[in-house]
Amino acid sequence: MRYHVISLVAVFLALGIGILLGTTLVERGLIAEQKSQISSLKQTFEDIKKKNASLHSDLEAYTRYADESRPYMVTNMLLGKAYAVLTTRNPDNATLAKIANGLAAAGASAPVTITISGSDTFNNQSVIANLATLFQMPADATQLKARVFAEIVNQLATVSNTGILVTMQQLGVIEVHGSLSAPVAGAVLLGPVEAGALDKTDVPIVKTFVATAFPVVGVSGSTTEAAVLTLYKKNGISTVDHVDTVPGQVALDMSLAGKPGNYGSGPEATRMLPAP
Q: What angle do CA 264, 267, 269 make, to 5 degrees?
């Protein structure tokens, strides 16, 4: 019995010593490996910081270059011309300001901005009834919406009866900001006019411009989904993405000056700028 007890104690003691030694060796190995990984990560992080600093410096240099070189490219390109801006009822005001700055750099102006209501407004029976009376047409929402868009384009081109714009504003289908006192040379469509329902509003607007051959360029800011300009391009108008950047503004000026195309850095762009 004493022999068996001593044997069992020896076995368990051996197991305990083995576990203790194994755990100590494994822990030492893990600690060494972790220290090595931490050292490697620190070096990688330092490399990334240096790379980011270099890229940031390059970006600042190219941004300054774009700002300082723009006058050499667009000064007086659109001298004395005026353009209308069309957009949603809740526009990106920062991008609108960038568009105005881009036009001003080329000697042009944007005296009027027209915001357009979404399709929900044209589902309002009271609005439809008033539009039907105004245009002496059947109370059909699709036809009346098309007539509203046609009248907007007509007034931009002719300024023959701007009072009708005032009436449409009173009915809630558009809002006019600024003054339309003379025909404009073209329009800038800042999309999307109706996010999530491009076929209901944006497409009819684009088709109206195309049908009347009135110059229009579809543009978007840096945060706009690419699908917007994809649809504009598909329906036959020039497009410029990232119009809130200097390259985008230069491309817009050149496109309005008679070099149509699809410009920018997005998936629908073929070039950053028109070919020389």
A: 35
- Taking the C-alpha atoms of residue 228 and residue 231, their distance in angstroms, rounded to an integer, is 5
Domain total of the chain: 2
Give me the DSSP letters along 250-270.
HHHHHHHTT--SEESSSTT-S
Q: In what order do the strands lie in the sheet with 186-190?
A: 174-178, 109-116, 82-88, 186-190, 216-219, 238-240, 262-263
Cis status, amide bond into 274, omega within 30 of 0: no
Give per-residue pLDDT as tens, 124-174: 999 999 999 999 999 999 999 999 999 999 999 999 999 999 999 999 999
Same domain for 38 and 103, yes or no, is no
Same domain, 51 and 181: no
- Whether 112 and 6 map to the same domain: the answer is no
CATH of the domain at 169: 3.40.50.2300
Q: Does any domain span residue 270?
A: no
What is the extent of the structural domain holding 144? 77-263
81 plus 70 within the same structural domain: no
Asked if 253 and 219 touch (Cβ cutoff 8 Å), the reply is: no
How many residues does the structure list for the chain? 276
State the pTM of this model. 0.82
CA nearest to 100, candidates 219, 9, 234, 223: 219
Nearest to 190 by CA among 159, 145, 157, 228: 228
User: What end-to-end distance do the CA atoms of the chain give, in Å?
Assistant: 103
